[in-house]
Amino acid sequence: MHHTFRLIIDCPDQVGLVAGVSQFLADHNASILEASHHTDLQTGRFFMRHEISTDSINLSYDRFIEEFTPLANHFQMEWKLTDSSKKQRVALLASLESHCLVDILHRWHTGELHCDIPCIIGNHPQLKQFADWYKVPFHWVDFKTLGKEAAFKQIEVLLDEYKIDLTVLARFMQILPDSLCKKLAGKVINIHHSFLPSFAGAKPYQQAYERGVKLIGATCHYVTSDLDEGPIIEQSVKRISHSDSATDMVRKGKDCEVNALAHGVRYHLEDRVIIHHNKTVVFA
């Protein structure tokens, strides 16, 4: 992976913005490897993602932030600069279904996902075998014995102890409490096994079967206090027919789930997602 700085900007749309950023980068000999822009005409917001080669620019990470700040303040930017060499620490939470967990672990193990996975947390012990295979510490949090409040407190402590940057709910079938949703806003990704906003909640494939739909899907989204209503990052669909049973839909839907989740996690890790109200701008 080429070593880069990623400059992410969200600000009011205004004349001279792109020119100002471009001039700043040119003044410091920066080579732009990838540039993405988008303007939301309804809200008047401008979004930008630049990937900058560190081999070219004559600024260190800290010096870049120091010198760019006056320009950012002038244009009222909400912005961040990230270093592609710094791996985010990702925690995987799962219950009984293994397909999403194993897919993420495989993509991490083969280097497709540029991150560290220091822990896996499960509310059932069965998935420990996969954690052991990938040599990742596994923590079983027994909700039945502890109760939900104490169980989630234990999960929160684990996330803090491991200094987790991103929490991925890989078919974790427990609803996060409001306090944790707010604490980790924009840092928890869930995979829901339906094409939201259709069939939110429990047993979506059964709901889809009873409705007689011709498409099923899965939705990767950020977690908020509103169940299954957080900003959508990625969706995947698959066509079905009248001959597909509810069981067939579950089997086919798993393909959608692993693909949508993997893409969504990668987009987040590569700073390609900007949350804007209850929507996202994704520079895929």
Automatic annotation (TrEMBL):
It catalyses: (6R)-10-formyltetrahydrofolate + H2O = (6S)-5,6,7,8-tetrahydrofolate + formate + H(+). Pfam families: ACT, Formyl_trans_N. The keyword Transmembrane does not apply. Its EC number is 3.5.1.10. Residues 6-86 form the ACT domain. One of its GO terms (molecular function) is formyltetrahydrofolate deformylase activity. The keyword DNA damage does not apply. Signal peptide: none annotated. Belongs to the PurU family. PANTHER family: FORMYLTETRAHYDROFOLATE DEFORMYLASE, FORMYLTETRAHYDROFOLATE DEFORMYLASE 2, MITOCHONDRIAL. Catalyzes the hydrolysis of 10-formyltetrahydrofolate (formyl-FH4) to formate and tetrahydrofolate (FH4). This is Formyltetrahydrofolate deformylase. It comes from Marisediminitalea aggregata. The gene is purU.
